[in-house]
Amino acid sequence: MRILVVNVNTTATITESIGEQAAGVAAPGTEIVPLTPSFGAESVEGNYESYLAAVAVMEAVRAYPEPFDAVIQAGYGEHGREGLQELLDVPVVDITEAAASTAQFVGRSYSVVTSLDRTVPLIEDRLSAAGLSDRCASVRASGMAVLDLDRDPAAAVDAIAEQAVRAVEDDRAEVICLGCGGMSGLAERVVERTGVPVVDGVTAAVTIAESLVRLGLTTSKVRTYAPPRPKKMTNWPPRP
Amino acid sequence: MRILVVNVNTTATITESIGEQAAGVAAPGTEIVPLTPSFGAESVEGNYESYLAAVAVMEAVRAYPEPFDAVIQAGYGEHGREGLQELLDVPVVDITEAAASTAQFVGRSYSVVTSLDRTVPLIEDRLSAAGLSDRCASVRASGMAVLDLDRDPAAAVDAIAEQAVRAVEDDRAEVICLGCGGMSGLAERVVERTGVPVVDGVTAAVTIAESLVRLGLTTSKVRTYAPPRPKKMTNWPPRP
Amino acid sequence: MRILVVNVNTTATITESIGEQAAGVAAPGTEIVPLTPSFGAESVEGNYESYLAAVAVMEAVRAYPEPFDAVIQAGYGEHGREGLQELLDVPVVDITEAAASTAQFVGRSYSVVTSLDRTVPLIEDRLSAAGLSDRCASVRASGMAVLDLDRDPAAAVDAIAEQAVRAVEDDRAEVICLGCGGMSGLAERVVERTGVPVVDGVTAAVTIAESLVRLGLTTSKVRTYAPPRPKKMTNWPPRP
Amino acid sequence: MRILVVNVNTTATITESIGEQAAGVAAPGTEIVPLTPSFGAESVEGNYESYLAAVAVMEAVRAYPEPFDAVIQAGYGEHGREGLQELLDVPVVDITEAAASTAQFVGRSYSVVTSLDRTVPLIEDRLSAAGLSDRCASVRASGMAVLDLDRDPAAAVDAIAEQAVRAVEDDRAEVICLGCGGMSGLAERVVERTGVPVVDGVTAAVTIAESLVRLGLTTSKVRTYAPPRPKKMTNWPPRP
Amino acid sequence: MRILVVNVNTTATITESIGEQAAGVAAPGTEIVPLTPSFGAESVEGNYESYLAAVAVMEAVRAYPEPFDAVIQAGYGEHGREGLQELLDVPVVDITEAAASTAQFVGRSYSVVTSLDRTVPLIEDRLSAAGLSDRCASVRASGMAVLDLDRDPAAAVDAIAEQAVRAVEDDRAEVICLGCGGMSGLAERVVERTGVPVVDGVTAAVTIAESLVRLGLTTSKVRTYAPPRPKKMTNWPPRP
Amino acid sequence: MRILVVNVNTTATITESIGEQAAGVAAPGTEIVPLTPSFGAESVEGNYESYLAAVAVMEAVRAYPEPFDAVIQAGYGEHGREGLQELLDVPVVDITEAAASTAQFVGRSYSVVTSLDRTVPLIEDRLSAAGLSDRCASVRASGMAVLDLDRDPAAAVDAIAEQAVRAVEDDRAEVICLGCGGMSGLAERVVERTGVPVVDGVTAAVTIAESLVRLGLTTSKVRTYAPPRPKKMTNWPPRP
């Protein structure tokens, strides 16, 4: 099967890194196709950029010319999953939801450790909208901007691990979710520092997407995610 | 003061009608400026169109060349208000939230009567994200598409009033919110049919925007709605 | 239009101060009428005094001989708004609810800073009953009794600002509501100390009452706030 | 021990009937003292009357000249219990809460069947404020006014039983609470009609008050129910 | 009347101590029968042991040869009450629920202080399942294992009182529940240290069980607690 | 990898059928080992039987002599998953939770259709305890006992499909979960009748268990699911 893994920002190196993470866990026979949106911000750390990313991801998927079996939206706390579900029949998996849903199977409560403080509310809102906040102990910010994660991985691990330890001790989290697509690859070191399971959203999403395909499940079209009605569109999609 | 009232779809006659409603309730000295987005769908009735409308509204506001004191996003259940709040210091009022917030002052519970069944979840999610769902008795669909409201106003009133009566009798609503920007103007006739107060989001939003300005309140910039960080943007905004 | 602004305690200087705040924000053509109850406590800081204030406010309004367009109950966390809504057709606005409802338009979450610790539960219960607690980050006490606010305004500002700063930093509030009618007038100085918007309930309530009147909305009489049924009353109202 | 059972309305025959119910279940050695407030409405069926009853009950208890061990507030959904708790050290038991708390021990969920539709919201709010609404399946109105319960007991049983049956079948209630002090005495006949346990608030409250006294428990004075602070009171209590 | 008080562990001295506590508060004419399960763990401090205790308690009650009027399950946070309710018509009272329900009558919020940290989630889940968590301020662990409570009572009181004080000051609890059957007997000393009412689950349960019997209430059999359907059982109950 | 799939009842034909379903979806290289408990009821339809099943499943897993990589508890709404998680390091997946978690990825809300009405509360409680009830539209009973599903499959499909259709139309479910291990195999026919995705818990659980193993995740041992402390056990496990 073929799974599109769509970055929410326009930084190609992040797309590449996400793609590698995804491929690393994919089952034999699964082809991972990483996509970068053709417009938007170099990193997504707020509502304006996130709404823009939502439509950019949708257009990137619509523009993809080959058939595919599932889509992963690889932005943590980002908007837009519901729109993709209207456009497609195949399963759409948001990595925020994939991580939380997976974490709940290996502990009674989980915390998310994300990048900047300002993205905490977006993640909280996404978890709440998805019905996954009951067992969320906290969403904590490491203070590392998305693009800094790559520039100084050692500092990133330190900052993330510190918040993870506080989540376990103070907020009573039993599992940690890495709350940023760009954190893929740090899981092992955070496990060492906290002693609890650490879930990465991208790899979790790959196994969930594969599972949904194997179970023959597609998005329900009965109401919320029915295809858009035929309509006159003005000046959209944008001319390249 | 000057208030921008931004339609979420590209149908100019709806913008005009919304603008008239807004102007009808505006205080002396308030200038209402209706805006139509330069791209998007002719009506917004689902997630894909709504996410697109979110960015179209933001770009319409960014492109407006004159100073203004507040913005009203005139789409019921639509995405995007949080993005506008990042971009602006002046108050931003979403009509879904304005109607609910106003309704709560004149009754113990309220229901929303909207256009199509598929938009019910969007409105429920918007109310929930805004912390306004505790006193929401129900969100009901009249079955009228947005563009049909104008084509057959008599049928629209009938369909809306029928659901409003059921909301009062079956769901125990004490106030009705008209859940669609295009329903502005039908309030009086729904009052006659139900005997309960009926709130229109556009006019409610005008009084709230004016109030916030008079109270000297602007959007808090301390966390969630801090301005976007300086970033490299690719291919955005779209070339006209 | 004429708006009655009813103090919940019997201290005339507080009534006067509330009336001045209200008048300061009222629109041209709005007449503010401050009222003091004819019985009750000199300040309201608990349930016994609050229930008593509830009936004292109702009797003060019933005794007012002229027509009026709206009523503001100027007690923070006080009981009784629902009773006034039964007695009247015109809008009734509680300042606790007015402040919270207004705060939600300019930030994702708000905290209330009130007088004594013992009044915190009353405010929490009022917000919860009104469906306004989802976005409430915390209710904090400054430790200043109501009558001390006037006696030592500088100490009051310090005590309130300290709790406001903690609300923003520790509880993640993005807006502060001043949780006591007697705090009207301190808003500006708390803004300076916290950097976030500060909402005063009395002035917020004036704009909301005016808005409801302009929108032609009156209290729903369909169920909860239907007029009291005709009944034999014993020894009530009390002889003056 | 001596328990005051305070009616919330001024109808002496109801006080008498409540007192008999209470005495019927009281343990040997418990003296039941029924009290009627000296002011207020002949029956309480709404917010205005209920707030008035709150203060009337408090004054009735304050005026009682002998020592006592506990107080029962015998109004269903009525305001005021928190005020009594401030004034007294001995336990105060509200019959709404007593019935719900008792019902939860004999079934997974309970419904309340009350008098008029307009009192439903008061009961819902009381249960919610007391933390007892999670297991409440519904609050239903029989349509019988309080004073009609006595005038036509057969019709009352029919109307109440009909709603009780619907609560069990449609709302999945497993226990029924009789939601009106005046319904004391109908329990047995409602059991016959529904086949589920039926809880009367007055008798439930007597056993709870006795239990709290036997356990040596008194109201916590640490915060919410601390005694009122010393204050100047104006024109209160009312001259007889 | 006769009340069975069933320990959840197999330590006879704890059964004895629980029985004494129960007998100390029982009304004249109430016979307390303490029972020890015939299989299971010497103390219950986790899910595996708790599920085992659930069936052990049920078998202990089934094996009891004489008639009885009510059953108390004397394990804090333990599983199984719902199963007993299916097997019996007479009231079944869980001490976790008895303590919480009683605490709510004497304070606005309560905290539980239990033995080990690992039992906190069990108690939280039990309170939540019983609809008693709204007014729960916190569940705190003293760090004392069940069997250590007896071995070093002075240290136990210190450890429990320390957490109780923090619950009152930091979590705003107004009542403390002693969260372990083995803590019966420590209440008085915790009252001295905290100044708030302290509820012991075993004694609270005795008064509730007696009350339910006096009120003539038995477990509702309409749905959740209907008797088990006739079935083929394999290898159960275990041969002694 | 090897996955144990444990039936909760003692009927071997159901174990066999569950095992076949599991094997049908398992990835190449996954060995499915179906287990039947050595004691308990022939079908589990209530709390008593469910608590007994909980310990029977735990003993069945403890008695299994070979290594394994994950365990699936194949009872819908049954107790016990938390106990298994204490006993094991490898992932434990409950089919109730697996189905709900999977359903949430393909629709905004889901309903469960189960066997008898009396099992509805167990399923509701399990979903609530697992943090999966926010998006649950309803749990409905088909009225078919577990052992009847096999005896008259055509009637079973009819009864289940009828409730499924009502869930979609009346409760606004967008996905259906088959709420009984014995319903495995009916999914396709319910899809035909409802037009929405249908999730079977057993197959969903297999893909989740495989995913957790592939992701290298094991149960968090930091608090709730720490291994049982060393203890003296009396008369357990039962002699065969």
UniProtKB/TrEMBL annotation, chains A, B, C, D, E, F:
EC number: 5.1.99.5
Signal peptide: none
Top-rank EC class of the record's enzyme: isomerase
Keyword Coiled coil set for record: no
Catalyzed reaction equations: a D-5-monosubstituted hydantoin = a L-5-monosubstituted hydantoin; D-5-benzylhydantoin = L-5-benzylhydantoin
Gene Ontology MF annotations: amino-acid racemase activity; hydantoin racemase activity
InterPro entries from the UniProt entry: Asp/Glu/hydantoin_racemase, Hydantoin_racemase-like, Iso_Racemase_Enz_sf
Keywords per UniProt: Isomerase
The family this protein is said to belong to: Belongs to the HyuE racemase family.
Protein name: Hydantoin racemase
The species this protein was found in: Saccharopolyspora gloriosae
Lineage per the UniProt record: Bacteria, Bacillati, Actinomycetota, Actinomycetes, Pseudonocardiales
